[in-house]
């Protein structure tokens, strides 16, 4: 099953490589990985999406917790949560395509953030399925370039992941 | 206020940490540190002949004393040479601090002379690693390194020290922190009371219980608590190769060790048990055999300081995360206060069954009138040293024979590379033990293959007068490899033959030691006695043993715990 694991990590050089190394060393897979400092600059927040059997996921969280620089972690998929991913897409946009793309972007609540005579650059945020859905709707033949941020997530309600 | 250079801070920190010995080898990036070492006499340095040996030596010291060992090497090749040693310690959870020189921070990333990314190279085989970014950090980093290495589930910690962090004329205030606190690292200090209660209830209700103890009992200094609990309960106990000595081998309740080359009675009792109390062990593949066939009727209580060891390969019914000594202590109290008592009839029937297995003598071997059997050598050594020696070993058949036929009643005396299986471990480990146990017998039971992996350390033994006894069970082959080839490859002995062996007697003599050859059966015991009486000499005892012997019992590959070969022809 797909899981979103959110990690508070000491914001120190080498900490990220330990997390990434752990995944390859123990043969766990990483689907997406995002990391950035938090409001407390001594901490980074890392979100990793992975999949595996319950036993594997349990091992992943335990092994992550064992890393000295991991301060806290939570498997967001265990409860209600919000997940978002940001995507920037360059699309071929000429002639009648331009209106069509604009409509699709509106439906997906995206924005066209850059325009040339033949290209639209679209920004879209949402969960990963929504982003996949957009690409499907546009059709891959019109897509020139895609960049996705990977998933960030946060628990719903009052639950917070902090020190 | 005391101003010190980074190099002096490092050595002062080691002093303040109470470190007596460090093992190492100098080189460019570590020279400021070596100079600081030279200018004091509290921390004593042992110069090995290969950095791998420095780590094994520190490791042997750590296993025998329960204290963290310390290594100092230079950057690049010095650092990379330590990797096998570090991995060996990592797999067996041995506390070490490995201090590595590094090129100056201004040169890092430029492929400077003897630059290696030691933080990256060591990452998968350390508990943690740290780099120094400012000289003032050194005391704090050293304190932290030992704290992490020695607490929780112990393990090796690497400290990378760029040369410009130790520059002699740049001085900073020296403050050795009294305490270490890490917000992200807090090993459990006790087990969950409810889980412990549940475990005790299950123990009381069990009909075919067995205690399965591992190296964690020795690392967690919990042998007294374990022994007390097991005696109170009157239940059978087995332990892993790493747990040898955690419970007296000569005691009736002890079934020997378990797993691939464990005793028949241990493996049978495990397989047929209805409750396994696992204490500080990790259901390693060399123990469980095929996990899907593992102990079908058993419920499992698993105590370990490392939560990740629990339910990793075998699911635990009752997981208990905590230090084994504290958890066992609580269990003892609960058992003592419990209104329940074990089901005497069931336990008696269980023991009757176990005694039948035991009477089957799974660990028999055939003697011969003229050929020396390796098992006989180990039995003789055990007799002649009253089972009190420190025994280090290498990897192969000799290791298994040593573990099977030397009976250890005390912890910290059986010292081997169980997890990584590192040939070349035995001699340097024995040196680390001998250095701090000069009055004890220290035997390195090895093979002619393994001993040659760190033979150069005979020179270090001369320099520091380390009269260990090297017992070379010379079968003129990479015996364990050959055994597998006999069993699985129709005796096609691909590269398992060690032709052109050196004359070990002359070799020992060339290094300034004594060499003794034993090739006649009637000489075995008298000569061993003579050797053991030579307290001040390192003696290399080259013993010609049966070249065709196999280690049994041996679990059948991909079988359950109870599927074993008991001899070349007998399978159960
Ligand atoms: C460094 C290393 N290389 C290879 C092996 C694989 N290996 C395991 S046992 C063994 C043979 C050891 O031969 P020897 O030391 O003579 O012991 P014997 O089995 O003959 O008693 C080998 C090659 C290992 N364990 N360690
Ligand atoms: Mg051999």
From TrEMBL, chain A:
GO cellular component, one term: cytosol
Subunit organization: Dimer of large and small chains.
Protein name: Acetolactate synthase small subunit
Enzyme class: transferase
Organism: Marinobacter vulgaris
Domain of life: Bacteria
Residues in coiled coil: none
NCBIfam families: acolac_sm, PRK11895.1
GO biological process: isoleucine biosynthetic process; L-valine biosynthetic process
Substrates-to-products reaction catalysed: 2 pyruvate + H(+) = (2S)-2-acetolactate + CO2
UniProt keywords, alphabetically: Amino-acid biosynthesis, Branched-chain amino acid biosynthesis, Transferase
Function per UniProt: Catalyzes the conversion of 2 pyruvate molecules into acetolactate in the first common step of the biosynthetic pathway of the branched-amino acids such as leucine, isoleucine, and valine.
InterPro entries cross-referenced by the UniProt entry: Acetalactate_synth_ssu (IPR004789), Acetolactate_synth/TF_NikR_C (IPR027271), Acetolactate_synth_ssu_C (IPR019455), ACT-like_dom_sf (IPR045865), ACT_dom (IPR002912), AHAS_ACT (IPR039557), AHAS_small-like_ACT (IPR054480)
Domain ACT, residue spans: 4-78
Family, similarity comment: Belongs to the acetolactate synthase small subunit family.
GO molecular function: acetolactate synthase activity; acetolactate synthase regulator activity
This enzyme's EC code(s): 2.2.1.6
Pathway: Amino-acid biosynthesis; L-valine biosynthesis; L-valine from pyruvate: step 1/4; Amino-acid biosynthesis; L-isoleucine biosynthesis; L-isoleucine from 2-oxobutanoate: step 1/4
TrEMBL record, chain B:
Thiamine pyrophosphate enzyme N-terminal TPP-binding domain span: 5-117
GO biological-process terms attached to the record: isoleucine biosynthetic process; L-valine biosynthetic process
Pfam families associated with the record: TPP_enzyme_C, TPP_enzyme_M, TPP_enzyme_N
Enzyme Commission code(s) on record: 2.2.1.6
Cofactor note: Binds 1 thiamine pyrophosphate per subunit. Binds 1 Mg(2+) ion per subunit.
Thiamine pyrophosphate enzyme central domain span: 196-330
Family to which this protein belongs: Belongs to the TPP enzyme family.
Name of the protein: Acetolactate synthase
Source organism per UniProt: Marinobacter vulgaris
């Amino acid at each position: 099953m797909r899981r979103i694991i959110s990690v508070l990590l000491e914001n120190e050089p080498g900490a990220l490589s330990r997390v990434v190394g752990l995944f390859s060393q123990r043969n766990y897979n990483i689907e997406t990985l995002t990391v950035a400092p938090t409001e407390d600059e001594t901490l980074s927040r890392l979100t990793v999406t992975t999949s595996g059997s319950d036993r594997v996921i349990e091992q992943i969280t335990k092994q992550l917790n064992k890393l000295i620089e991991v301060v806290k972690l939570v498997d967001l998929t265990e409860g209600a949560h919000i997940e978002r991913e940001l995507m920037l897409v360059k699309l071929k946009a000429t002639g009648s395509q331009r209106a069509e793309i604009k409509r699709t972007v509106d439906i997906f609540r995206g924005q066209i953030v850059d325009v040339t005579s033949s290209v639209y650059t679209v920004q879209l945020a949402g969960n990963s399925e929504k982003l996949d859905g957009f690409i499907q709707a546009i059709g891959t033949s019109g897509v020139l370039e895609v960049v996705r941020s990977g998933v960030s997530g946060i628990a719903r309600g009052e639950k917070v992941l902090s020190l | 206020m005391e101003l010190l250079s980074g190099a002096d801070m490092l050595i002062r920190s080691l002093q303040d940490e109470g470190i007596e010995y460090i093992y190492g080898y100098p080189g460019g990036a570590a020279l400021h540190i070596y100079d600081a070492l030279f200018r004091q006499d509290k921390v004593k340095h042992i110069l090995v002949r290969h950095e791998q040996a420095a780590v094994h030596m520190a490791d042997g010291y750590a296993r025998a004393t329960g204290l963290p060992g310390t290594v100092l090497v230079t950057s690049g090749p010095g650092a990379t040479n330590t990797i096998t040693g570090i991995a060996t310690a990592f797999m067996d959870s041995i506390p070490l601090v490995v201090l590595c020189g590094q090129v100056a921070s201004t040169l890092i990333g430029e492929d400077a002379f003897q630059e290696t990314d030691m933080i990256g190279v060591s990452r998968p085989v350390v508990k943690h690693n740290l780099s120094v970014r400012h000289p003032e950090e050194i005391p704090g980093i050293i304190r932290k390194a030992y704290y992490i290495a020695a607490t929780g589930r112990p393990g090796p910690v690497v400290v990378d020290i760029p040369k410009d962090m130790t520059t002699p004329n740049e001085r900073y205030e020296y403050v050795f922190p009294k305490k270490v606190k890490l917000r992200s690292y807090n090993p459990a200090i006790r087990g969950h009371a409810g889980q412990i209660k549940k475990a005790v209830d299950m123990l009381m209700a069990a009909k075919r219980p067995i205690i399965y103890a591992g190296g964690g009992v020795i690392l967690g200094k919990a042998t007294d608590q374990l022994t007390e609990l097991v005696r109170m309960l009157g239940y059978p106990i087995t332990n892993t190769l790493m747990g040898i000595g955690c419970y007296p081998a000569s005691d009736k309740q002890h079934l020997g060790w378990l797993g691939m080359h464990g005793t028949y009675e241990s493996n049978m009792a495990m397989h047929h048990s209805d409750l396994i109390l696992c204490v500080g062990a990790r259901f390693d593949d060399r123990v469980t055999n095929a996990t899907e066939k593992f102990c079908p009727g058993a419920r499992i209580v698993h105590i370990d300081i490392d939560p990740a060891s629990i339910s990793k390969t075998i699911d635990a019914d009752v997981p208990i995360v905590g230090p084994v000594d504290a958890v066992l202590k609580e269990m003892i109290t609960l058992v003592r206060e419990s209104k329940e008592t074990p089901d005497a009839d069931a336990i008696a029937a269980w023991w009757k069954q176990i005694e039948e297995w035991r009477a089957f003598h799974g660990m028999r071997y055939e003697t011969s009138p003229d050929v020396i059997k390796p098992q006989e050598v180990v039995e003789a050594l055990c007799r002649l040293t009253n089972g009190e020696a420190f025994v280090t070993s290498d990897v192969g058949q000799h290791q298994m024979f040593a573990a099977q036929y030397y009976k250890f009643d005390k912890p910290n005396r059986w010292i081997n590379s169980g997890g990584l299986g590192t040939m070349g471990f035995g001699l340097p480990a024995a040196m680390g033990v001998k250095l701090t146990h000069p009055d004890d017998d220290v035997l390195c039971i090895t093979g002619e293959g393994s001993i040659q992996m760190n033979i150069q350390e005979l020179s270090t033994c001369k320099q520091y007068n380390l009269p260990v006894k090297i017992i070379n069970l010379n079968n003129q082959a990479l015996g364990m490899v050959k055994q597998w080839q006999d069993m699985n490859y129709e005796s096609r002995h691909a590269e398992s033959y060690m032709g052109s062996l050196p004359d070990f007697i002359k070799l020992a003599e060339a290094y300034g030691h004594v060499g003794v050859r034993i090739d006649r059966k009637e000489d075995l015991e008298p000569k061993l006695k003579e050797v053991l009486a030579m307290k001040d000499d390192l003696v290399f005892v080259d013993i010609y043993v049966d070249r065709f012997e196999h280690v049994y019992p041996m679990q059948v590959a991909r079988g359950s715990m109870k599927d074993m070969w008991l001899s070349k022809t007998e399978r159960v």
